Amino acid sequence: MAVKKHNPVTPGTRFRIANTFAELTTNRPEKSLTVGKSSTGGRNSTGQTTVRYRGGGHKRRYRIIDFWRDKLEIPATIKTIEYDPNRTAFIALVAYADGEKRYIIAPEGLKVGSTIISGDKVAPEVGNSLLLRDVPLGTLTQY
């Protein structure tokens, strides 16, 4: 992940670094995998302010993430790597061989066009999902 160092114009920005977003391949989410996200703005069900200094910000849509990775032994291709406003990690749009699309959390080193697979006894490569007991001892790569 590439980072950029800010020009220190104030003492607070002296050691500040930020993401360059160079890995992103699109800025439009998959419509079928997004739902509306409501914001309370610090108000309860009757509309009274119960928590002060909340509210504002940009309107966001929630991206439905496949945390379970339960499509076993079906190869999938990475279509895009996208920004997610609801989390600090990037997400990847995955198209399975049977035509279904899902979002996954994109591990570092995942590239567009690469093939991933989930299941038992798969190779321990970037993007693949396997059980912890199946990870070989001494493996240093991230999953």
Structure notes:
- With 143 residues, this protein is an all-beta fold.
- It has a single domain, classed as Beta Barrel (OB fold (Dihydrolipoamide Acetyltransferase, E2P)).
- Helix content is 0%, strand content 22%.
- The chain contains no helices and 8 strands.
- The chain has strands at 3-5, 17-19, 34-36, 61-63, 76-82, 91-96, 101-105, 115-116.
- Strands 7-6-5-8 form a 4-stranded antiparallel sheet, with no helix packed on it.
- A hairpin with a 4-residue loop joins strand 6 (91-96) and strand 7.
- The protein is globular, with a radius of gyration of 19 Å.
- The two termini are 16 Å apart.
Question: In a few lines, what is going on in this structure?
Answer:
By secondary structure, the protein is mainly β. The chain has strands at residues 3-5, 17-19, 34-36, 61-63, 76-82, 91-96, 101-105, 115-116.
What coarse outline follows from CA principal-axis ratios? globular
Structural class: mainly beta
State the distance separating the first and last CA atoms: 16 Å
Helix content: under 10%
